[in-house]
Task: inverse folding
């Protein structure tokens, strides 16, 4: 029987895991967070916090020890904010007082160009590093926005996949229970066709024994028919041959008398003629064995109605299917009614399967989650827009510093000339230096703000990663949830010990929900699908059905007696030796044609009288005519008689033994039919019953397999959890962490940027005072090309 396949619903694809450059950057952030948080997960206090949020006051020391890495990092960040703020406050004051590079004077040395280029190169590198971090900040900020916007359709798709999965389960359960119509219809067809099926089985079992005997009886009848025909043919052929022999004797006697008279009247010319007395027959077919008694015995048997007996026996066997159909009418109706009850019982068993009710509660939870997200989607997107604006502003602050540095790096060299006096530097060069100072100023102004934002986001995003995403990825989170959440109670499945870790593992391997939820420990499937509770009534009805097969007679007592008479009639011992000896002789003692030739020779003798010649010629022709008649009539009859006797001997030689064997076979078969038909009917009824029950056993086996291994294979559940992990952690949390990491990256590099920008600005800004020599080797405005100033000056140029 072919059962229908379970539904194979189509699911929407889930989000793809991060790859490429963003994955490398996320791994770098993860490495930093793993360095900060070195404690193993889960901490000892996590269970107490999950069960009692008020216990935080009791476990604050453990919490602080667990968060020590973050506290140290935050302390460093706080120290950075304080120091940068203090430096930002004192640095302008120092410059206003002419310190910290505030004096617009630059000493000219031989290595001034090398220093400028060195500082320029490193500032360029630092600026590019800050620019790279700012690009990552812009990208991460956009990635967060994209992740939040995509979160709702992705969440809806994931929930939709789960609902599709959940809704498919009752359909598959219905498909399994509805498939019960297949064995029921098969059983119903078998019951309706009980005559051809059960009757055919009984008929075949009887035919295995009866057909051989009926064939032997039919062969015996055919053999006796052939023997009777052979006897009749021998008798008819002999009578014809006997009549022709008598006619031959008469003809030869007349010719013999005429030749004798002719030779007597001829005298001396006919003295050499052969004696007419030799013109007589040699073979004498005057007697044949009497087999009329045997022929009568055979005919009596053949006329005893044996053909009708064989036909009746065959008809009785062929009528067995119809006989069974007629005798089981009421049982068939009872079984059909019982099959209807079986279908109702199987339909009722569906409501006992707990998986359907369990999935109903899950479906309700999914609807609540969808309603919640739909209700808050607009507010979340509004807040996300504000966050995105703030992120853009923070990234633009960094970009402002980068732009100032880049303008300084671009304009400074463009307007700078080594041969010019520092007080005469070009506007472009001076602007480049001013941009450097502006970049340093903006860095001082916003560094504390950027570090403060970084610290706050770091504390939130870092802890979310190390306490949620990382253990979620390595499956430790499932174990923690299992220790502190009763998933069995949540799913409303009593009497089963479930864990999310095991559920996820099983679903990842696409295991059926029956095995995953361990429903076998709660629901006794073997008891519910026990075939006896469905088929006991059918079994009882069919076992109590009585089938009686009509008596089968292969040969009655009179016919058996007549067969014995034929076997003992001596038909196989008929003596045809005398006839056989006569058939080895010639028909006549003298060759008639040779004798006629001798008469022609005498008639051709000139001395023979003409009247004698004429008589001899006529008598010679008469002998030739007799010989021609013998050849045309008598000899074929002799051959026919010989053939008939041979056929008779062949058919009758083993006839008694064959008849006795057939009688023995008839007796054995008749005894088998008389004593074993009841057993045959019982055995074949049992086979027929097992055949009907086999339909249900096959269905029950298929149902068990479907329920325990194929129904609700929960790969979509594992895929939903994976999608949630990708959405929450890889797309949202990782992007969030990448954003603050980018801000912190840029803010840290503000320090070398400030130092190098302030130092490099003096190489491009227009100085107010020229350099003077304080020692014999010092000289003003010394450059690589100003070798003409060899005498020190004694005055200061202002």
Result:
């Amino acid at each position: 029987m072919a059962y229908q396949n379970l539904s194979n619903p189509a699911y929407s694809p889930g989000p793809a895991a991060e790859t490429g450059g963003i994955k490398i950057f996320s791994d770098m952030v993860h490495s930093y967070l793993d360095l900060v948080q070195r404690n193993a997960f889960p901490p000892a206090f996590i269970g107490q916090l999950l069960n009692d949020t008020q216990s935080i006051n009791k476990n604050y020391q453990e919490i602080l020890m667990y968060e020590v890495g973050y506290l140290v990092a935050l302390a460093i960040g706080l120290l950075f904010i304080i120091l940068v703020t203090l430096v930002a406050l004192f640095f302008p004051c120092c410059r206003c007082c002419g310190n910290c590079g505030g004096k617009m004077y630059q000493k000219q040395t031989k290595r001034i160009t090398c220093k400028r280029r060195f500082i320029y190169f490193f500032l360029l590198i630092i600026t590019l590093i800050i620019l790279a971090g700012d690009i990552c900040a812009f990208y991460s900020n956009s990635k967060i926005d994209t992740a939040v916007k995509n979160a709702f359709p992705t969440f809806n798709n994931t929930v939709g996949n789960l609902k599709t999965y959940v809704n498919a389960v009752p359909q598959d359960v219905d498909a399994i229970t509805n498939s019960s119509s297949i064995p029921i219809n098969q059983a119903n067809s078998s019951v309706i066709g009980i005559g051809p099926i059960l009757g055919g089985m009984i008929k075949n079992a009887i035919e295995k024994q009866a057909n051989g005997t009926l064939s032997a009886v039919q062969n015996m009848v055919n053999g006796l028919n052939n023997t009777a025909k052979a006897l009749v043919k021998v008798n008819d052929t002999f009578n014809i041959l006997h009549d022709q022999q008598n006619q031959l004797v008469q003809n030869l006697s007349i010719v013999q008398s005429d030749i004798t008279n002719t030779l007597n009247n001829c005298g001396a010319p006919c003295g050499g003629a052969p004696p007419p007395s030799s013109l007589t027959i040699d073979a004498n077919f005057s007697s044949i064995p009497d087999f009329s008694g045997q022929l009568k015995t055979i005919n009596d048997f053949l006329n005893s109605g044996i053909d009708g007996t064989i036909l009746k026996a065959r008809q009785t066997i062929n009528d067995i299917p119809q006989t069974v159909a007629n005798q089981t009418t009421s049982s068939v109706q009872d079984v059909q009614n019982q099959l209807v009850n079986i279908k109702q019982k199987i339909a009722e068993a569906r409501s006992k399967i707990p998986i359907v009710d369990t999935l109903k509660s899950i479906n309700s939870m999914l609807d609540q989650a969808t309603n919640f997200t739909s209700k808050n989607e607009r507010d979340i997107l509004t807040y996300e827009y504000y966050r995105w604006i703030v992120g853009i502003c923070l990234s633009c602050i960094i970009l402002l510093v980068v732009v100032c540095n880049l303008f300084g790096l671009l304009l400074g060299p463009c307007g700078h000339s080594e041969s010019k006096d520092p007080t005469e530097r070009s506007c472009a060069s001076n602007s480049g230096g001013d941009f450097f100072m502006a970049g340093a100023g903006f860095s001082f102004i916003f560094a504390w703000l950027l570090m403060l934002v970084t610290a706050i986001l770091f504390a939130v995003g870092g802890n979310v990663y190390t306490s949620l995403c990382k253990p979620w990825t390595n499956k430790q989170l499932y174990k923690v949830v299992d220790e502190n959440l009763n998933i069995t109670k949540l799913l409303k499945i009593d009497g089963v010990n479930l864990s999310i870790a095991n559920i996820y593992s099983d679903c990842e391997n696409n295991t059926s929900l029956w095995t995953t939820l361990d429903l076998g420990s709660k629901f006794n499937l073997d008891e519910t699908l026990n075939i006896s509770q469905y088929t006991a009534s059918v079994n009882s009805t069919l076992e109590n059905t009585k089938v009686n097969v009509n008596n089968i007679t292969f040969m009655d007592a009179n016919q058996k007696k007549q067969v014995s008479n034929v076997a003992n009639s001596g038909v196989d011992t008929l003596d045809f030796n005398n006839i056989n000896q006569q058939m080895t002789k010639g028909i006549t003692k003298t060759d008639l044609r040779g004798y006629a030739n001798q008469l022609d020779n005498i008639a051709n003798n000139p001395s023979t009288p003409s009247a004698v010649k004429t008589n001899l010629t006529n008598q010679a022709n008469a002998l030739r005519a007799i010989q021609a008649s013998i050849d045309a009539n008598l000899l074929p009859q002799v051959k026919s008689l010989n053939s008939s006797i041979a056929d008779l001997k062949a058919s009758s030689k083993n006839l008694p033994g064959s008849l006795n064997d057939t009688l023995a076979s008839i007796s054995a078969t008749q005894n088998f039919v008389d004593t074993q038909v009841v057993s045959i009917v019982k055995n074949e009824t049992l086979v027929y019953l097992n055949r009907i029950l086999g339909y249900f056993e096959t269905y029950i086996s298929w149902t068990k397999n479907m329920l325990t291994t194929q129904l609700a294979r929960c790969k979509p559940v594992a895929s939903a959890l994976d999608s949630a992990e990708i959405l929450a952690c890889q797309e949202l949390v990782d992007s969030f962490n990448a954003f603050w990491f980018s801000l912190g990256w840029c803010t840290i590099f503000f320090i070398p940027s400030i130092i190098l920008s302030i130092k490099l600005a003096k190489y491009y800004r227009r100085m107010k005072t020229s350099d003077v020599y304080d020692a014999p080797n010092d000289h003003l405005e010394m450059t690589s090309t100003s070798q003409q100033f060899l005498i020190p000056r004694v005055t200061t140029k202002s």
